Amino acid sequence: MHPLCFFSFKRGKKSIKREVIDMKRKTVMGILFILAGIVIFTVRINEFNFSTLLHRYWPAVIILIGILILFSGEGKGIKMSHDDIQSDDYIDYMNIFSSLTTLNESSKFKGGAVTTVFGAAEIDLRPATIDPERCELSLTAMFGGVEIRLPENCNVIISGIPIFGGWENKKLPTKDPSLPVVRIKCFVAFGGIEIS
């Protein structure tokens, strides 16, 4: 779990109770971002420097983030952390200053995307059944980490771009070419990805 927890976006099914909790968190976080932006903006307006507009208007970005959080679409609820069991065939997670821990029990897992920025994601796919036709995962770790645990009965092919970071494949190789293949594309900048 990452020590800095602000928010993470998760697209998928939710229970009504979780939706209510997410709505409350979303409202609180949105209001906090708007208030922080307004306070910083008011202080900055008195120090206005005509030499650069960016210097004056950067707090407006914080206000916009707050507004976007409040009015984000269905399925993009804010969570302080995410711990649950999923059965989705596709996953799509984005963590910013947050952590995510999930277990997927899909009967035909086809892949998806996981992005962390100053955060951490731990995705356990060991109970899932990999789709034999095609399974692709796109993993992005920027100043954070992603850990993916794959089932034993699959092969893995990894490619990607590391920039001051990298990935490590700890998954034991299988000698059976008929097993499903998980293709993983990694982008790492100042972070790490671990596949096991």
TrEMBL record:
<protein>
    <recommendedName>
        <fullName>LiaF transmembrane domain-containing protein</fullName>
    </recommendedName>
</protein>
<keyword id="KW-0812">Transmembrane</keyword>
<dbReference type="Pfam" id="PF22570">
    <property type="entry name" value="LiaF-TM"/>
</dbReference>
<dbReference type="InterPro" id="IPR054331">
    <property type="entry name" value="LiaF_TM"/>
</dbReference>
<feature type="domain" description="LiaF transmembrane">
    <location>
        <begin position="28"/>
        <end position="76"/>
    </location>
</feature>
<feature type="transmembrane region" description="Helical">
    <location>
        <begin position="57"/>
        <end position="73"/>
    </location>
</feature>
<keyword id="KW-0472">Membrane</keyword>
<keyword id="KW-1133">Transmembrane helix</keyword>
<feature type="transmembrane region" description="Helical">
    <location>
        <begin position="27"/>
        <end position="45"/>
    </location>
</feature>
